[in-house]
Amino acid sequence: MSRPAPVAEDAARADKERLADAVRQVSAVRGRSLRRSVLVGFALLAAVIVMFGVSLSFGDMVMPIGKVVATLFGGGDGGSQFVVLELRLPRALLAILVGAGFGLSGAVFQTVLRNPLASPDLIGISAGASAVAVTAALLFQVSGLALSASALTGSLLAGAAIYLLAWRQGIAGQRLVLVGIGVGMGLSSLVWYVMARSEVTDAQEAFRWLAGSLNGRSWGQVWPLLVALGVLVPLTVLAAHALRPLQLGDDAAAGLGAKVEGGRLALLGCATALAGVATAAAGPVGFVAFVAAPIARRLVPGRGAALPQAALTGALLVLVADFAAQHALPSVQLPVGVVTSIIGAPYLLLLLARANRVGGGG
Amino acid sequence: MSGPALLAKEKPSGGGKEARRKRSRPVLALGLLAALAVLFLTVVASLAIGSGDVPFRDVVDGVLDPDVSVKGQLIVQEVRIPRTVAGLLAGAALGLAGTVMQGVARNPLADPQLLGINAGASVAVVCSITLLGFTVATQFIWFGFLGALLAALLVYGVGSLGREGATPVKLALAGAATSAVLTSVTSAILLQDRGSYDQFRFWQLGALTARSSEVLWQVSPFIAAGVVLALALGPQLNALSLGDDLARGLGQRVGTIRMVSALAVVILCGAATVVAGPIGFVGLAVPHAARLITGPDYRWVLPYSMVLAPVMLLVADIVGRVIARPGEVQVGVITAAIGCIPFIWLVRRRKLVEL
Asked: How far apart are the C-alpha atoms of A326 and A131, rounded to whole Å?
């Protein structure tokens, strides 16, 4: 107050300039971040394609990429056609589809519930899919499409149960996560029980599936998943229009005219179904849904949910993990879920430790 | 330790606090005797009820004066007595371990299964059986302890870094993550080996029938040591429940208490896992049930938990024997199915983080 007038005027001018500067910076950052988002998207896509090529050409019989491409377009001899088209192609495609499904599902869950820990594999939704699918397969000898349908049903049932159990004048991310952990533990003991009751060979098969495996998968698993994703991904994108206001918090979103509860339910429904169909195809591949979205968000900061990038990250992750699972140890074919869990769980621990340091972990 | 001051400090709401204060020492002691009586009846039921019918006369003779040429007495001697003893040992261990964990971490959600400690013991036992070819409990029990210890250190370490300390949510999540990765490792090992898998799938459920009576003999000294350690921790846990600073003010060595508690928990969890496999929710539910009876004084919660947990485990086991006749449902399935309910109830309670 007691300052001389000229100084105040200077200060005001400096303020104005700083403001203009800030506006310029923000728009520059926005442009840059949009460019970055697109760029990262393409980079991820390129990485997926490269990895796809690698997994088609590498194996017991290493095949030059030119021959792989020729075989894909109908050329090649009978042997390479069998290896590429019947063995490697469905497996690699399945890795991409499963990864994309889990990645997208995890991104939606984490964004809608505003909690990095709320991913379908941690909160019991994959466990629901597993429980119903394993029960159907072992006790009722269900297979093929009906098995996929039962996994989908299981995930939706578990999702609904968790949502209702966690409901208490609204849904809090933390409560939902803990309820989900409890429900998941109950469900997995059901799975173990069903497995203990059945023939050892069947149980062994189910056990392999539960570890999350792409071993021996064929076109029979690819087509249903492709169709399901063809339906669910557009639905998720449609529902994701509701996602952006939700990120501002419930009150703000309601103030902006968003139908908070409806939009959230639609999105969670889509994401639950995505996790369900992915689980049906490859089993509950651990931690892909959990880590894909945070990696994508790290790659494109400030772009919100980054759904396409999360899906691509998931796809890349499963491709790489499955490649490692096949070739890391000589003569041992690990299930892909073992590899993703060994990568993913330490990341979860790291996240918890870091969140603790910042003080917002709980 | 002044009891009333401690009770007043605890947070139960309204009428409950008054009701808890009035419970005097003789009443609690009588209650403990009643609990022991219930435990005795449970043990009798566990000896008398099974998937096959054995006349009660043979049950009594089978325990007191066995004549192994009679089929019923042989069953009692060879199957039901070891099974019941396993229930007593594992139950007492899990109940005490859960109570100590909840006390030392000030965490209502602490449970050996939820915090990944059982998974640590399991993976170590499985490794030692399949990779090193161990078959005798005295060999692999040490691996069980080691696995439990490492998992406990990891989960508690990750969960308690930083200012907030170990909140229930962080510990539960760290436990879930640790369990997931350890289970993956177990799967990877077992998928290579059909023979071990066939045994493991029963053991993984948590069963009281999985181990022979020699194993029970070998494990019981460890459980006895764990029980003594845990029961002696009552006053210290009371002090800790006031918070670290106040506990220090009362002259307690907080670090030492935590170390002794961890030792007790690891011994008890490791031994229980060797006896019965990973069994969840007993260590979670029983201390809460005990606290409903005794109020927050750990000097009473601990013995009550030790008596009530075998009751829960044996009752679950008995239910499992009769529910799906002629087959059986393993006890871990029953405890998980029942135990989900108090867990979800606890989670839904509003002021969870503040305990």
From this structure: 27
Chain B contacts of A193, Cβ < 8 Å?
205, 329-330, 333
A165 contacts A101 by C-beta, under 8 angstroms: no
Contact residues on chain A for B189, CB-CB shorter than 8 A: none
Instruction: State pTM to two decimals.
Output: 0.79
Q: How confident is the model at residue B1 (pLDDT cuts 50, 70, 90)?
A: very low
Shortest distance between the Cα of B273 and any Cα of chain A, in A, equals 16
pLDDT in tens, B111-156: 888 788 888 888 888 888 777 777 666 777 788 888 888 988 888 8
What DSSP designation does B296 have?
Answer: S
- Tell me how far apart the alpha carbons of residues B84 and A251 are, in angstroms, rounded to a whole number: 56
Q: Which residues contact B141 (CB under 8 A, 6 or more apart)?
A: B218, B219, B222, B270, B271, B274
The HSE-up count of residue A68 (CA atoms within 13 Å, CB side) is: 18
B332/A207 Cβ within 8 A: no
Reported as a single tens digit per residue, the pLDDT across B298-338 is 898 999 999 999 999 999 999 888 887 777 788 888 888 88
Q: How far is A124 from chain B (nearest CA, A)?
A: 11
Rounded Cα distance, B330 and B279, in Å:
10
Task: Provide the shortest C-alpha distance from residue B111 to chain A (in Å).
Answer: 12
**Which amino acid appears at position B303 of this protein?**
P
| Residue A109 near residue A124, CB atoms below 8 Å | no
Nearest by CB to A204, which of B167, B183, B197? B197
